[in-house]
Write a structure and sequence with these properties.
Helix content is about 65%, strand content about 0%. It has about 50 residues and is mainly alpha-helical. It starts with a helix and ends with a helix.
């Protein structure tokens, strides 16, 4: 899975810098993009404690 993403990133013609790897990461990346960073950080802290 990780090797596939590395290959995709290396051969992609876009200027994209980050690629999500893992199960269920796409919704998390969407939330990260939509929320202010302080809200997202607070949400992660609550989820991980």
């Amino acid at each position: 899975m990780v090797a596939q993403k590395i290959y995709q990133a290396a051969t992609d013609k876009s200027d994209r810098l980050r690629y999500g790897v893992g199960n269920g990461v796409e919704p998390l990346l969407l939330v990260r993009r939509l929320l202010p960073s302080s809200w997202f950080g607070g949400m992660l802290r609550r989820l991980l404690t």
